[in-house]
């Protein structure tokens, strides 16, 4: 068995005019839902440009990105959970997992100044966005449905999304899964495919290599 921990995911997008029927169907099949607003910052290694242009074992490559996420809305009665730092490795091949995106990932909760912590690890900020929408829970899955909001360069506050901004949907395992007899990847894949099935006809959920 691999020592990696994995995320299993499917992705989709739709136009604002389809929001109500998609929202209703996901709500019907979910155990809970609440509004979502999150700030996400992408970091890259200080030597990212060097990694892209110079030969390393296996040839030049895209540097490993570090992402920081902070939920700005907590469920009623919940506590501020601080920042989560996470990073993905390259997704497993489509031959191994043709139905869903399966990629190794690692997460780390940070209380306090996560941005300085990322800097101390040798990373610099590359980009920042806000996400606003809805968060659903279904078994071991999280379903995020959101529009991206850009950042005002003067105030660093989010700029409300335009009415015709695409909605994005991410159906993914809520926590890293270690492929074992107790928690086989096949079970997680089956659960995300169930969401793909009940959204058929309204929303095309698919695998993507990112």
Q: What does this 3D model show about the protein?
A:
It holds the Pfam family Med18. Its main location: nucleus. InterPro entries: Mediator_Med18. Keywords: Activator, Nucleus, Transcription, Transcription regulation. With 210 residues, this protein is an alpha+beta fold. It has a single domain, classed as Hypothetical Protein Pfu-838710-001 (Beta Barrel), CATH 2.40.320.10. The protein has an eight-stranded antiparallel barrel with strand order 1-5-4-3-2-6-7-8.
> Which stretches are poorly predicted, pLDDT < 50 over at least 5 residues?
none
Mean pLDDT: 89
Text of the CATH class: Mainly Beta
SS field, number of helical segments? 4
Element-by-element helix/strand order: EHEHEEEHEEEEH
CATH homologous superfamily name?
Answer: Hypothetical Protein Pfu-838710-001
Entry keywords:
transcription coregulator activity, alpha+beta, eight-stranded antiparallel beta barrel, 210 residues, activator, Mediator_Med18, Hypothetical Protein Pfu-838710-001, globular
What's the helix and strand layout?
Blueprint: E1 5-14, H1 19-29, E2 32-45, H2 48-53, E3 66-71, E4 83-88, E5 101-110, H3 114-120, E6 123-138, E7 141-149, E8 167-173, E9 177-178, H4 185-198
Antiparallel strand pairs: 1-5, 1-8, 1-9, 2-3, 2-6, 3-4, 4-5, 6-7, 7-8
């Amino acid at each position: 068995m691999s020592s990696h921990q994995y995320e299993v995911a499917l992705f989709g997008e739709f136009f604002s005019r389809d929001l109500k029927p998609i929202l209703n169907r996901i709500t019907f099949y979910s155990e809970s839902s609440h509004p979502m607003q999150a700030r996400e910052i992408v970091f890259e290694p200080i030597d990212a440009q060097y990694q892209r242009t110079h030969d390393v074992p296996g040839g030049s490559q895209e540097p490993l990105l570090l992402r920081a996420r902070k939920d700005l809305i907590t469920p009623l009665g919940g506590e501020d959970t601080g920042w989560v730092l996470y990073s993905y490795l390259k997704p497993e091949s489509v031959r191994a997992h043709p139905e869903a995106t399966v990629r190794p990932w690692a997460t780390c909760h940070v209380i306090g100044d996560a941005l300085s912590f990322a800097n101390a690890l040798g990373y610099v900020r590359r980009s920042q966005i806000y996400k606003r929408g809805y968060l659903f829970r279904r078994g071991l899955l999280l379903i995020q449905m959101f529009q991206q909001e850009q950042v005002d360069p003067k105030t660093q506050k989010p700029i409300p999304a335009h009415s015709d901004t695409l909605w994005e949907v991410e159906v993914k395992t809520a926590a890293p899964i270690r492929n074992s007899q107790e928690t086989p990847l096949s079970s997680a894949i089956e659960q995300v495919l169930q969401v793909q099935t009940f959204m058929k006809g309204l929303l095309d959920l698919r695998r993507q290599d990112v």
